[in-house]
Amino acid sequence: MKPARIVITGVGLTAPNGNSLTEFRQNLLHGIAGIERMEIRYMGTQLAGVCHYDPLKYQKKKELRVGTRAGSISIYCAREALADSGVNFETLPKDRVGIYIGCTEHGNVETENEIYNISKFNYDTKFWSHYHNPRTVANNPAGETSLNLGITGPAYTIGAACAAGNMGLIHAAQMLRLGEVDYAICGGISESIHTFGIFAGFKSQNALAQHENPLKASRPFDKARNGIVISEGGCLYTLERLEDAQARGAKIYAEIAGYHVNSDASDYVLPNPTRQAECIRAAIARAGLKPSDIHIVNTHATATPLGDIQECEAIRAVFGEGCPDTYINNTKGYIGHCMGAAGALELAGNLPSFNDLTVHPSINVDDLDPACALPGLVLNQPRTVAKVDTILNNSFGMLGINSALIVKRFTA
Amino acid sequence: MTKDECKQVVLDIIADIAPDEDLSNVKPEVRLRDQLQLDSMDFLDIVMELRKRHSIEVPEADYQHLASLDSCAEYLTPKFIALAAKG
Predict the structure, then answer these.
(1) pLDDT digit string (tens) for A65-86?
(2) Backbone angles phi, psi at A288, to 5 degrees
């Protein structure tokens, strides 16, 4: 039996440069980045991608006080995606809805906050918050979303470092195909900018971007790139089986065509281009395509000196010179690295290409690194192309987790 | 500290932990849970804030005394006075 066809019917997002798909896309086409200076505990001013959605749109003040930033971002994105999907939420059986949210990490923010809090009380643990455990359990962002929406189906997170955004979508597609749920809210989120640890960690690793102009700091594939800009963000989709989406007359953004997930098993932090290439090839094969059938490749491209080169090596190995209709871009020049949200956001930024046949550019590439000079790169200016029927989204993460997701133009 | 001042201390804490609530007409003799959206975690917040802001300890066996503003005042006012006397 052929597996069920799975389609995307709604998108909700918040990025450092936009709080809806329309706003986000417009800024990607106009080269508008969203990086700013932010005070980080113990570290002073750092560069970060900060989201400016209205948290009170869908939550009460008390929910914000008790919950986490990750929960709030998830709730905002989930509610926006639900509304965008046009589903009648009142009549949707809540026990048949699944929430699958990818995140890079969870709990660091609250743990750091509590340690800071008790430092004001001579480290007396009787001042440690009774909210610490519900705030730091790994399922927190999905759990807060289920509470806010009254969804009683499975709601949990998927920890997959910076591959997590793709993983949320992949896992949801699998659960829909298994018949575990009938409607899925899925993707990835990150609250990472609220923990000093991630900044300090990347700084110790010599992988934290520096630039006098925040908007120029994140520069994947540029020769002068010097590391990651850490960002928060979220992007959740609604996924449904095709027959369910058609039965209710839903608009369809795209169809899940193929995916693959594998592991490097070679290093804690250094990417492995051989395994990345295997991952991409397997996703293309699952989609029943060949590399030349892929029209947009959104690279993971975090702007670390070595990571970008490693990924380009993998892309070159798969696509070579024989793919004249394949265009390549990346998104982190605009929004920094949204960690668990990165893959989901970066896919969303490219989805409108099915309609406008325009590939958004990679920005901040003033001097292209020859090691990143791939055929089909779209740099600094958007490019209108003849055909966009397929998008490949790469997301890779620490400990060597690789994910590649392919969506295709929906045709009945 | 008077009992009315003590009630205001508790109300100030509730204003922070239940920011969506209208506290302009809280009836002192009625259980707080019967007139406000407060759950058991919120009462733990009241206990924590009394500890943090005023160095007042409320043992678990005494949580029942936090039921209403009146019972809070009855229970907490002597503690505030004792604390003030200690200087």
Answers:
(1) 999 999 999 999 999 999 999 9
(2) 75, 30
Q: Which of A161, A158, A160 is nearest to A141 (CA)?
A: A158
CB A59 within 8 A of CB A67: yes
Determine whether the interchain pair B48/A130 forms a contact, defined as Cβ–Cβ distance below 8 Å: yes
What are the structural domains of chain A? 6-247 (3.40.47.10), 257-408 (3.40.47.10)
Of residues A2 and A134, more confidently modeled: A134
Structure tokens at A102: 């990818």
CA distance A120 to chain B (A): 10
Tens digits of per-residue pLDDT, A350-400? 999 999 999 999 999 999 999 999 999 999 999 999 999 999 999 999 999
In whole angstroms, what is the distance from residue A169 CA to residue A81 CA?
13
Q: What angle do CA A191, A30, A11 make, to 5 degrees?
A: 45
**pLDDT tens digits for range A235-259:** 999 999 999 999 999 999 999 999 9
Read off φ and ψ for residue A172, nearest 5 degrees.
Answer: -65, -40
* pTM of the predicted protein model: 0.97
What is the pLDDT averaged over residues A318-326? 95
Contact B52 A60 (CB under 8 A): no
Whether B60 contacts chain A with CB within 8 A: no
Measured between CA atoms, the residue of chain B closest to residue A66 is B17
Angle at A194 between CA A193 and CA A195, to 5 degrees: 95
> Using CA atoms, how far apart are residues A218 and A216, in angstroms rounded to an integer?
6
> Which CATH number do you get for residue B15?
1.10.1200.10
Question: Strand A390-397's sheet: what is its strand order?
Answer: A155-159, A97-103, A183-190, A233-241, A6-14, A254-263, A401-408, A390-397, A296-298, A327-329
Cβ of residue B56 closer than 8 Å to a chain A Cβ: no
pLDDT of A1 over the 80 cut: no
Instruction: Identify any residues that bridge with A180 across adjacent strands, giving them in sequence order.
Output: none
CA distance readout (Å), A118 to A59, A83, B51, B61 = 28, 41, 12, 25
Point out the residue among B19, B37, B44 whose CB comes nearest to the CB of A130.
B44
Q: How far is A398 from chain B, CA to nearest CA, in Å?
A: 37
Residues of A annotated catalytic, as ranges? 162, 300, 337
Distance of residue B77 Cα from the nearest chain A Cα, in angstroms: 22
Q: Cβ–Cβ of A62/B44 closer than 8 Å?
A: no
Domain count, chain B: 1
**Coil, helix or strand for A153?**
coil
Closest-CA residue to A241 (of A2, A78, A1, A4):
A4
